[in-house]
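User: Run a structure prediction on this.
Assistant: Running it now.
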Amino acid sequence: MTAAPSGPAFSVHDIPFSAYGSWFDISPVIAEKTYAEDLHLVSHQNGMHGVLRLVPLDPVGGGRAETSVEATPGLLSWVGESGRVELVYEAPDTVRLRGSGLDFGVLAAVRTLTPFSGTYFFHDPAANAHVFTSYETGRRYRVTVLSGTLADTFGDQALGSGDRGVTVTAEADGGWEVAVEELDTARPPYASSASFDDIALAARGAFAAFVDAVAPWRSEAAPAAELAAYVVWSATVAAKGLITRPGVLMSKHWMDKVWSWDHCFNAVALAPGVPELAWDQFLLPFDHQDESGALPDSVTHSEVLYNFVKPPIHGWAFGHLRRGLPTPLGRAELGEVYERLERWTGFWLTARRAPGAELPYYQHGNDSGWDNATTFDPGRVVVTADLTAFLVLQLRELATLAQELGRPDEASRWTGVAEEIQTALLDQLWTGERFVARSADTGEASSSASLLDLMPIALGEHLPAEVTSALADHIKAHLTPYGLATELTTSPHYVADGYWRGPIWAPATVLVEDGLRRAGHLRLADDISARFRALCEAHGFAENFDALTGTGLRDRAYTWTASSYLLLARDHHLRLAGTGTDDTAA
């Protein structure tokens, strides 16, 4: 009774077991930095909630059986001395489980039921199944026994505190099987003509097709490509609630949102292989663009936040996305992006420029995506060089789009604004050695040891050579054996797990690497790419990494990290294929 595993093995403590389109996963991670003893069915509707506890049981004593958990992209297994249990996704909202030699409990994770919280449990005679209804998710979870028998049920229709759930055991043939569904209100009784092995085969095939599309170039030179693809594939949810399109969440751990710059890296990575999904990723936050033209800070199933924004890297991202697509975008698609980028750019040029000022400002570090970077220590409402650089790139992309759409006057206007703002960037924020930030209120200048101050390297070929050379020298000082520290490791403000005050982050790596390469600093760009790829291959796809040890930090299954690895690995492969060696020019 063992379905053949396929794909890379991984630890469910680091990466949730899930499937493309599903709003739930199977994981011991039930809240931020909170690990349960048992695996749970964790739903991401109305937030992150561990709904059901999944427990392998000793068929003799009835207690919790000691098992190890094994996971590959299509199959999850509990393996004990006397037997095993296996789980596969039959559909995004349905899993099948089967076992032999072990009994199994499906239990409400929360024991207390109140009129406003917890999980109610009952037998539904119409479906001949047992149903859990969750206040937290607003959804139902139905358990149907397909073979074997119910060993016990407890808490049926009970109120207050207590255990609720079922345990299933084998009949004489030694096996049992159940289906667990997440549903809204009602559906016909569960029925399936597919065998467990057929379902497992289909699940393996679905992931294999995705990884073949996303990383057809993979080889021994990119040993983490399949696992990176799984992180992205398994974190993709169906359009539901406020997620208006199929969406790649940042994680199916606690970072279960789409932030309005994180999505760009997923979109660019997906463009060559799954262009429709890439297009949806790019546009998803724009579906919630407000009247001012601003994008929301984040979007998830039941919440859109507008109290902060994110930096305007969307022009940069769209340029990369469209160059990666297998077929050119049509005039309608280009027009749609132009209108949305125009409004987003207008927000920065109006709502975020003080009267008479040429350069825009952030209101808080959160607006930059670098929440607590030391650039913001002297003041939060600040004009920074990274913001200006990203806006210049976006203005240039608007000019390109306007020209393609047959609007030469608008193209000329956007080009003029881009040149004016870039001139102001160099006049007001460049000291001759480095970029500084300035208070939006007083104009007082400040500098820091943050890599954020060096992010204008993203302008690449648009900057004077002497500026890119000085930035490249400063960037080298941020390099550790594992990659780019976001705060100089010699800084008194460096913190190993300090979020943006030290750890290595994927988006900064990709933006710096790309800018250096476009500016002609190929050797340094190659070095940064190689170190980050090696970091992911050794330590996975965490939200960020300790700059001095490489250890993964915070959320351990972050999609923009996986997508950034795929981007860098693909580009490295293409360079090798095109030249026979990686770029080594100075």
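The CA atoms of residues 235 and 348 lie 31 Å apart.
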